């Protein structure tokens, strides 16, 4: 069974064809000439369906390739941490990958408000990054496919609150302000290789 109940336009099958073209491209090389796997970024405001789409794409991944899904939620370090999460992605994932090295990502525990050990991402594996702010300028330059998702604000808010995040309702406005500032500064939708609508 596919992990998502959301409807995307274009259809997920068409989105997957877009990603497959990136997988068919020659493998990227790190600074030392080592193999670097494909990097797919899925960005958009809260509640647009980024996590669901990333899961859909990972479920379709070729069995002869290894893919790891990275959630930006693990990198923010709290409700005021959008900028910190973007920097962490660059420093902890992109820089080691460019050198052909394993990446070591921390994982923020939102319940205890502390950091766990996180995950090690082996050099050369394919990576899908999903979450608000994954289209930072450095990230976008390193990516093979950049997917931007949009949805109406009322729908986004309802989805986000329905996920059961205990404090999201109280932090919604603060988080939206951070993301809007990021949008104005970076204009991530203009960097996208594919723009997607999520309306259900």
Separation of termini?
Answer: 19 Å
The number of strands is 10
Known CATH architecture: 3-Layer(aba) Sandwich
Strand order of the largest sheet: 1-10-9-4-8-5
Look at the structure and name the CATH superfamily: P-loop containing nucleotide triphosphate hydrolases
Strand content: 15-25%
- Report the sheet with the most strands, covering strand number, pairing sense and barrel closure: 6 strands, mixed
* Domain count: 1
Fraction of helical residues: 25-40%
| Helix/strand structural class | alpha/beta
Radius of gyration: 16 Å
Total count of helical runs of at least 4 residues: 6
Taking all residues together, what is the mean pLDDT? 88
> How are helices and strands ordered from N to C?
EHEEEHEHEEEHEHHE
Describe the structure in your own words.
The chain is α/β, with parallel strands linked by helices and 200 residues long. The protein has a single domain (8-20, 36-198), classed as P-loop containing nucleotide triphosphate hydrolases (Rossmann fold, 3-Layer(aba) Sandwich). Helix content is 38%, strand content 24%. It contains six helices and ten strands, in the order βαβββαβαβββαβααβ. Strands 1-10-9-4-8-5 form a six-stranded mixed beta sheet. It has a two-stranded antiparallel sheet with strand order 2-3.
